[in-house]
Design goal:
Layout (H helix, E strand, L loop, with lengths): L15 H8 L3 H9 L7 H13 L6 H8 L4 E6 L5 H16 L3 E6 L4 H14 L3 E4 L10 H13 L3 E6 L6 E4 L2 H14 L5 E6 L4 H15 L10 E4 L3 H14 L6 E4 L2 H13 L9 E3 L16 E3 L2 H12 L3 H4 L7 E3 L9
Parallel strand pairs: 1-2, 1-3, 3-4, 4-5, 6-7, 6-8, 8-9
Antiparallel strand pairs: 10-11
Helix pairs in contact: 1-2, 1-3, 2-3, 5-12, 6-7, 8-9, 10-11
């Protein structure tokens, strides 16, 4: 029995009806007081509702609110690999921006599996998040493309907001990241440091982000009349271990004058540094290594890694602001990248 005389089962949670009766107000007034309605509520009534809710230990039924509003206060973030610092840094930005908007972020990993990504999007649609952000790079050829686009379009028709990160593949709101331009700039800088023979350790064929970075690196070398042989493009998993395995295979077959390795992301580059060292060579002396992304850890490896800086947390923040209708973000264009030269690629000669 409560102070106001409302009796509830020991195990049954209080309902909004209970709160309204306890406060002596209408159900509509109780709802507006607790759910942040823009319609003004008399301050005395609002306080009575809040006090009644506290006495009854009332918690709002978020599922019911989702049905009523057609949306929740959640942001769904899909990443390829939750352990990859590239994606965790983007997630940190989304979470920070969500805090300012009083939203909650839920995250799921696709493991770069198109079928799993499609399944996750279908599941998330049923939970009615306010925003869905897709941050994982997709395959260049994917049989689920049409189905995924239809799921995302249906979600938007129901009132949700979709934002893609990196490339606009479905004509939804997108935070563009020009991987090709950044990789070309890196190639030009390395040529300027005196390097002439290169190898690339990258993902297996079919991943859009890796393909763009390889193409951009080739563009930059071509400006200096340097050709990158297909034989010097080593493909492995887009992970730290993939970078290690690819570099180990490259060294085992013989470097044949190769002076520098471009790893298509920083975690591959960290693996490449370890492989160089394990082969009895000194990274940055016997073989230069560069990466892409500038995840936080690469400043602390030995030697510190040359890379292309991508403002990852800002990308996460920008993605959510774009979803929530920030017109300034929509007008900003592609996210700028910056080459950062460190000790892993010293000047030659």
């Amino acid at each position: 029995m409560t102070d106001g005389g409302i009796q509830t089962s020991r195990n049954a949670p209080a309902t909004l009806h209970d709160v309204a009766r306890e406060a002596g107000v209408s159900l509509a007034t109780a709802s507006r007081s607790l759910n942040g309605s823009t319609r003004k509520v008399n301050e005395e009534y609002r306080q009575r509702v809040l006090e009644a809710a506290a006495r009854l230990d009332y918690s709002p039924n978020l599922s019911a609110q989702a049905v009523a509003r057609g949306t929740t206060t959640t942001v769904a973030l899909l990443v390829a690999d939750i352990a990859d610092p590239y994606f965790s840094s983007i997630a940190a930005g989304v979470v920070a921006e969500a805090d300012t908007a009083r939203l909650i972020v839920t995250m799921a990993a696709t493991e770069r599996d198109p079928d799993r990504e499609l399944e996750l999007v279908r599941t998330l649609r049923g939970q009615r998040p306010r925003v869905m952000i897709l941050a994982g790079s997709r395959p260049t050829t994917d049989p689920t493309d049409g189905a995924l686009g239809e799921e995302l379009a249906a979600y938007e028709r129901a009132g949700g907001r979709v934002v893609l990160i990196s490339r606009n593949e479905y004509d939804f709101r997108t935070v563009l990241l020009d991987n090709r331009v950044g990789a070309a700039a890196l190639a030009r800088e390395l040529v300027g440091l005196g390097y002439r023979r290169f190898a690339v350790v990258t993902a297996r064929e079919g991943l859009r982000t890796a393909a763009d970075r390889l193409a951009g690196f080739r563009d930059g070398l071509a400006e200096a009349d340097i050709e990158l042989s297909d034989d010097d493009v080593i493909r492995a998993e887009f992970t730290r271990d993939g970078g290690y395995d690819g570099t180990t295979a490259l060294i085992a077959r013989g470097l044949d004058g190769i002076e520098a390795i471009f790893a298509a992301n920083d975690v591959m580059a960290v693996g490449a540094l370890s492989a160089v060292r394990d082969a009895g060579l000194t990274p940055g002396v016997d073989l230069a290594v560069a990466g892409f992304d500038d995840v936080p850890t690469v400043r602390d490896v030995t030697p510190p890694l040359t890379t292309v800086r991508v403002p990852l947390e800002e990308i996460g923040r920008r993605a959510l602001r774009l979803a929530l209708g920030d017109e300034d973000v929509a007008a900003e264009g592609a996210v700028a990248t910056e080459v950062v030269l460190r000790e892993s690629t010293p000047r030659r000669g």
